Amino acid sequence: MFYDHQQIEKKWQKYWEEKQTYKTFDTTDKPKFYVLDMFPYPSGAGLHVGHPLGYIASDIYARYKRHQGFNVLHPVGYDSFGLPAEQYAIQTGQHPAITTEQNITRYEEQLRKIGFSFDWSREVRTSDASYYKWTQWIFIQLFHSWYNKSTDKAESIETLIQHFEEKGTQGLNANQNEELDFTAEEWKNASDLDKEDILLNYRLAYRAETTVNWCPALGTVLANDEVKDGKSERGGFPVYQKKMMQWSMRISAYSERLLQGLNTLDWPQPLKDSQEYWIGKSQGAQVQFNVENHNEIIEVFTTRPDTIFGATFMVLAPENPLVDAITTADQKVEVDTYIEETSKKTERDRMSDVKNVSGAFTGSYAVNPFSNEKMPIYISDYVLMGYGTGAVMAVPAHDERDHRFAKKFNLEIKKVVETDEDVQEKSFDSKTSVCVNSDFLNGLSYDEAKAKMIAEIENRHIGHGTTNYRQRDAIFSRQRYWGEPVPIYYKDGMPYTLPASSLPLELPEVEKYLPTEDGDPPLGNAKSFAWDEANQKVVATDLIDEVTVFPLELSTMPGWAGSSWYFLRYMDPHNEEGFAKKELSDYWGQVDLYIGGSEHATGHLLYSRFWNMFLKDRGYINQDEPFQKLINQGMILGMSAFVYRVEGTNQYVSKALANQYKTQKIHVDVSLLKGTSDELDTEAFKQWRPDYTDAEFILEDGKYITDREVEKMSKSKYNVVNPDDICEEYGADGLRLYEMFLGPLEQSKPWNTQGLSGVYGFLKKFWNLYFNGDVFEVSDEEPTKAEYKVLHTLIKKVVFDIENFSFNTSVSSFMIAVNELQKIKCNKRNILEPLAVIISPYAPHICEELWSLLGHDTSIEFEKFPELVEAFLIEDEIEYPVSVNGKMRFKLSLSAQLSPKEVEDLVISDPKMQQILEGKTPKKIIVVPHRIVNIVI
Ligand code: ANZ
């Protein structure tokens, strides 16, 4: 029977839509299971076959869990604020909302064609006011919260105010910008404005002057994870360091919890490692050094207090405020010149440039509190102001950067202590070290030496043990248009939140998406964007009088705001009273399986854990961690095609002849190749672009053969394959099976359209198992043991594979099972019904069709997954090879239930064996049960 995938797939997609097959209900007595994909940013280019890889895997899992009786939440939505739509708006004047809408429509069409079992009714879009209303609401909660280190959680700002009223800052253990010290009396006497200023020092969403990554070409600040090698991740524009007033999120308050939480998660180890590295916990000590002839004290952070005897000089960050005070008149010019030079470098450049050691001497000396030696004080850009205390004690015999610095400036290198770690690592350049073991630490292990030094430092009151985290607070404002407005207005320069009842604060219309002439962000162009405090509404910008009408915040939220909590919105997407009802967030709880790309390791996956912990602290949800199990799908790579242009001409030479010319290698679109071959359709190439209209070709055997190479699949490399084309030709079921068949989910693998015919052939064979010629024919006869064995072998394998996320191996098992059933001409209902259920998570359309042909009038989706009956796997008869003196002589079929002794007796009494024995008695008989019989005569 002809397998008409197009007709079948259209029919079932329509059916699912009409019957709302995948709509998920909350009120259920079934156990829940939450399967989530990282939601897409709807780009203008649409989907290519690399995008659905993770979605197919999660869809298979979601369907499998439905078959197992779970109430599955498997939603989809769009991360629809972001830079590309805005860049496009700047170029074309087209409102980003319009392009975003168009892109979403295209995405949805493409996704629907692949037959995903999403509950479309729960779709969210981060750029919809009904969604970002709650992003703004969460921002407001963060603004009105502080981190109490004593209770180790975020609390309402009211509890902080109460503490100030009762005790001032006494006994306060908070996470803050600056350590403040005041009494209850002083607090009460402070003006309202001063009180607000103090509170800003503690809020979880706060404004402060920070050094930011400023990207002039994009006109905005970027997060550290949006900057790669000093360039913006999007567009590759240069990024500079600049001090600006910015909104920040106090994620650093959560560093320890973010670190500890990793232990509870089932995530890939490399992903956990990168979060751990990003958080960067260091344990050590803060130690004070006196400066000769100055009252200033230099405080350093060191992870190696045990090396203090070998500290021979000090290095301050050029921005350290102490530099000015301790620089001598003689050294001032040199120091100032150096400071000027470093201000041009980004923090990243400073950290990555290890070869060019640079610095300047301040002219002052510190005193080593342990060796009492004089230590010259330098400044250098390898010391960063934002980490620790912005100053280091340099131990050139133990620290590589200090060592390079000492070499360059000819400073003393003194090795002091031989610890376990030194012995293990064989300190990087021991030849230059003088070994002056200090009696104080001799014989101790690294840990012991460190602990002893910290105790001694504390004892002498010159410092204390401390823990530092590399992770900084996250800058939260962007000077862009296409993002969530920050629900803040300014009165006397102080930020105040809008009342929650007035949300959403809608993104205003602007004429231009560029910064204003005064350098304000694009929202500064809006005609109606001011806050009328008394009437609690947005009014014309002209009305700002700083009395009743105030300016609103002009920056917008970063891309990660909306994606930090979307998994909660899916639980209750239409709620207008809250972001999600507590009963529902309790019922759906954690995401049980989250699938997405590894590029979100330190961005989205840290921010969303942070917001989730915050919402838990404030009692809005119950779970600590949002994503219990996470899988990073690999990338699907494209097969790029290249032509060789003879330099300076419009001639193109075929691959094999290219080395005879001086050529340039140029990408061509893979759609210009003939069929699935490497041959270029030269006519199509000429029409591709105006510059190629007059192209001439140097052919081999009358053909132009392109060069091929595996690269990342990307529109810019012209190697994308559109899933729509694949669905058209091989069906969505073919696409789904093939994407899984390509290889293990986590690995990267090249796409090869030729491989699709294999899975398509399988689908046809599977289909035809249910037909006799053109007639659907399934027999009700009881299957044989052999038939049951094929089925149950498959059940066992597929259950194991799905539960271990090994989707590629299931596809091979389907192929094996279908081949075997075809060979034994099985068309029994008791085999073919369960077979359709087993294959349906992978190829849902064909299985729905077969299911309905089998006489069912409900969807296959909720059928119970067939259960394994081990008895069917047990062999009845074993065909024993009988080997005599190491040579296989004959085979004997015996019951699998026999004991070794019974096997032995039956083999010996067999006439064939009797003939071989010729009356002799065997010297030795070894029976390996179910395998072989070895006889020595
Ligand atoms: C002496 C020493 C001896 C150090 C030694 C290391 C090895 P992590 O692990 O990243 O926390 N350091 C401290 N503050 C710094 C800053 N603002 N900029 C650059 N470097 C800074 O690194 C902590 C170590 O990095 C500290 O321990 C300090 O050097 C340096 F054999 O002190 B150490």
Automatic annotation (TrEMBL):
Residues 278-457 form the Leucyl-tRNA synthetase editing domain. It is found in: Cytoplasm. CDD domains: Anticodon_Ia_Leu_BEm. ATP binds at residue 715. InterPro entries: aa-tRNA-synth_I_CS, aa-tRNA-synth_Ia, Leu-tRNA-ligase, Leu_tRNA-synth_edit, M/V/L/I-tRNA-synth_anticd-bd, Methionyl/Leucyl_tRNA_Synth, Rossmann-like_a/b/a_fold, tRNAsynth_Ia_anticodon-bd. The keyword Cytoplasm applies. A motif ('KMSKS' region) lies at residues 712-716. The keyword ATP-binding applies. Residues 790-901 form the Methionyl/Valyl/Leucyl/Isoleucyl-tRNA synthetase anticodon-binding domain. SUPFAM superfamilies: Anticodon-binding domain of a subclass of class I aminoacyl-tRNA synthetases, Nucleotidylyl transferase, ValRS/IleRS/LeuRS editing domain. It catalyses: tRNA(Leu) + L-leucine + ATP = L-leucyl-tRNA(Leu) + AMP + diphosphate. GO terms for molecular function: leucine-tRNA ligase activity. Keywords: Aminoacyl-tRNA synthetase, ATP-binding, Cytoplasm, Ligase, Nucleotide-binding, Protein biosynthesis. Residues 38-144 form the Methionyl/Leucyl tRNA synthetase domain. It comes from the Bacteria. Residues 705-738 form the Aminoacyl-tRNA synthetase class Ia domain. Its EC number is 6.1.1.4. PANTHER family: LEUCINE--TRNA LIGASE, MITOCHONDRIAL, LEUCYL-TRNA SYNTHETASE. Belongs to the class-I aminoacyl-tRNA synthetase family. This is Leucine--tRNA ligase.
